[in-house]
Amino acid sequence: MKESKFQHDLIEDIKARFPGAIVMKTDPRYIQGLPDLVIFWNNHWAALECKKTEAASKQPNQEYYVNEMNDMSFARFVYPENKEDVLNEMERSFYTQEHSRRI
Predict the structure, then answer these.
(1) What ranges do the domains of the chain cover?
(2) Does domain 3-102 have CATH number 3.60.110.10?
(3) How confident is the model over 12-41, as a mean pLDDT?
(4) CA–CA gap between residue 37 and residue 47 (Å, rounded)
(5) Is 86 helix (H, G, I), strand (E, B) or coil?
(6) Residue 31, SS3?
(7) How far apart are CA 33 and CA 49, in angstroms?
């Protein structure tokens, strides 16, 4: 599967799982290495770097930005082999953040 097809399907899955989510594609020419997608849902956000396979090479700075953004909220590398795990983890993260804000 091409990365662009995977990314398109992933966006559709995110919108179905998180109704009302805003999914933005980043511009790789603006900040090299920034994750491909930024997702806003209610008062949460996440960043996902899409890869066509687990073995796909990473561009310079991608690890840095995924780690930095994960420290801020939630960020992951996502590929077909781990897509469901990442979406489940993102969902748990959003609901955990929501619960901790209420306490």
Answers:
(1) 3-102
(2) no
(3) 96
(4) 6
(5) helix
(6) coil
(7) 9
